Every structure is written in C-alpha cells, then in structure tokens.
Amino acid sequence: MAKKTQQTTWAGALMEKLTGRASGGHERIAKKPVAERLGWLSKRNRGDEEKTAAAAGVTRRTLKSWLSGKSKPSAKSMDKLDRAEREAMTRLVSAKDRAEMDSSTKRIGTRSRDARVTGGAFLSGTIRVSQDERDRLILFGRHMPSGFMDEVRQAFVEGGQEAAIKKMEDGLADHYFGTSDFEIISVDELSFDGISDPLGDVGDADGRYISDVESLRPGDILED
Questions:
Q1: What is the DSSP secondary-structure string of the chain?
Q2: pTM of the full predicted structure?
C-alpha cells in the first residue's frame, strides 16, 4: 500500500513554498531584538553593510547606530525592516524554484484538457466547498492568470503571511472555485511545477486560445 503523504496546514504548505520556512517564520524573526534582526538581514546580504542598509531603507550610519544600540528604529523604520526581512525570506528559495513557481499559472481555457499541456500548480488535500467536504485534487494552475504566484509573493513581502494567504484564496475563489465559500482544511501536497505548452498558445482576455503554430481555421478559437 502506498504511504499517504503527511498532511500539513494550508498556511504551512504555502509558506514553505514561498519562503522555504514554516508558517509563522517571519513572526519568529520579528520577536528578536533589533540587533539580532539586523544580523539576520546582514547574513542574507552576505555581510554587505551597504546592501543591508539599502534593504532596510536607511543609511549605513543609521544601521550602525541601530546595531550599537545608540538609537532605535521609528515605527516607520520598523515597518521597512519587516518588509526587508520578508523580501529576504522569499530569496531563501532558489531563483530556479521561484521562476518555476512563477511559470506554474497560466489560464489556458479548453487547453487545460489537452494532453500536450503538462505541469501547473496543483493542490491535494481535504477541501470543503460549500457543504461538500472531502479529499480533492485541484489543478488550479491552468485556470489562474499568468504571473499570479509572483503577486502572492509580493503580497507576502508587503503584508505578511495573512496577506499572502488572502491573495491566494481570493485567486482561487475568482478563477477556480467560482465562490469564496470554501476552506482548505489540510494539505497533502502543494506543487508549483511550471506549465509546458508545446504549441505556445497565447490567450485573450476571455481565456480563448489561438495557436501561433498552425494557420487560423474554424475551431482554432477555443473557449471554456
């Protein structure tokens, strides 16, 4: 019998993909003293004071003053530090994996049922839609706008974990489920494999696709 994939929370699965860290990762960093937080940010920038200061939105002089304890960041500066830390967390994921994640969504309309199109973001787990709670496999990547996962990543950078989850769930509601009345109860697997479309079709605003390889003929324009 195949071993069942270990379940995790929706927040845990999404944060692991976005940052390579567990749910609440930034919240744990944010509880540390300012000097420790700056040390963590400096490490992410390979000890480069100029880059660390730029990431935190301050001068090197101000950065050194914070590190020595001679001054403390203002509330506005703390917001900038929060953002810099979250942006650095997204870079804990390799550039290759980030690129694949960003290519894992592309609305392909009827082509979603074309065997030639492979990959795309998918989620398996226990999901409730309205009153129907059961194990599901949802291939949502082929229904979402191109670059949607970069928008989710930026939502995390700007507003944190809750903002990223809301962006993700709003996208699923608008482009996949067609309703906001759903709940992802637990996750067996969350994958963001890049979409491969051999014909390289380009869709219009309505999700209709015209082949850029073959000559246009009746039936080339496909709709969901």
A1: -PPPPPPB-HHHHHHHHHHSS-TTHHHHHHTS-HHHHHHHHHHHTTT-HHHHHHHHTS-HHHHHHHHHTSS---HHHHHHHHHHHHHHHHTTS-HHHHHHHHTS----GGGGG-TT-EEEEEEEEEEEETTEEEEEEE--GGGSPTTHHHHHHHHHHHH-HHHHHHHHHHHHIIIIISSS-EEEEEEEEEEEEEEE-TT--EE-TTS-EE-SSSPP-TT-SB--
A2: 0.82
